[in-house]
Structure formats: structure tokens, C-alpha cells
Amino acid sequence: MQCSHCGLCCTETEMLLTKEDIKRIEKKGFHKKYFLKIDKEGYAQLKNRNGCCVFYNSENHQCNIYNDKPSGCEVYPVILDEDVGIIIDDLCPKQATIHIDEKNEKGKNVIKLLKTIDEEAKTRR
Ligand code: SF4
Ligand code: SF4
């Protein structure tokens, strides 16, 4: 896809994290307290600051951990709609630039990812 780096998907993020994502980000030198919150269901999520993900750089409109960003950010804007299945999020202004093959490939990863995230959340309850 041709991401325009508009930052919409980094605004008021609710991005879920896997344990692997958390470890990878910690290795970059960020403390969990800075970027991680756990909700009451045990799900790990990115924190926001001033309305955006803590890693969003509003000056250059880039992700500060671009090469190590969470797997959910990697597959975005392909997401799972509980009622419809794998879709391309219509919030993304570049949704039309995603090829069907990319959607299908990322869609498989979304399913695996959500399974892992659900299993990991259970271990925190
Ligand atoms: S909303 Fe779409 S175009 Fe904008 S930064 Fe996210 S992926 Fe890129
Ligand atoms: S980690 Fe990066 S890509 Fe993901 S929501 Fe935060 S700023 Fe955006």
C-alpha cells in the first residue's frame, strides 16, 4: 500500500500488543510504564499522550519506533470486523491502494495475531 503517513491510525490509538511486541519495544529502551496499559480484561494496549500514540512524532508525522512497531500496526489497515470478517479499515484514506493479495496476506496475520492476543490476555486474568 501507499501509506501517506497522515497519522490518522496513530490518533487515539487502541492498538493491542503481543508479549513479543512489548519485549521488542522494551529492547529499544522504552520502559513499559511509558507505552503500555493493561485493560481490565487483561489486554495490553499502547498508551496515548495528547491524543496520539506515545510513539507518534507530530513534528515529522512519523512513528518513532517504525522498524519495531507493533504487529497490529504492521498489518493495519487490514483489520477484523467481528460481523463481516477481514476488511480494510475505511478510516484509512489510502485504503484503495491495498492490493487484494496484500489484504489476504495481512488478513491471515490478523487472525493469528488476534488469537495470540486473546490467549495472552487470558493469562493476565
Ligand atoms: S491511516 Fe492509512 S494512510 Fe494514514 S498513516 Fe495510517 S495506514 Fe497510513
Ligand atoms: S506504534 Fe507507531 S504506527 Fe503504531 S500507533 Fe504508534 S505511532 Fe502509530
Task: List the ions, cofactors and other small molecules found in this model.
Answer: iron/sulfur cluster
Estimate the helix proportion, in percent. 25-40%
Run of helices and strands: HHEEEEEEHEEH
What kind of sheet is the major sheet?
2 strands, antiparallel
Structural class: alpha+beta
Task: Report the β-strand fraction as a percent range.
Answer: 15-25%
Going across the biggest sheet, name each strand in turn.
1-2
Q: What is the number of helices?
A: 4
Let me know the number of strands.
8
- Gap between N and C termini: 37 Å
Regions with little confidence, pLDDT below 50 for 5+ residues: none
Q: What is the overall shape? A: globular
Q: Give the integer mean of the pLDDT values.
A: 97
Number of domains: 1
What would you report as the Rg, rounded to the nearest angstrom? Answer: 14 Å
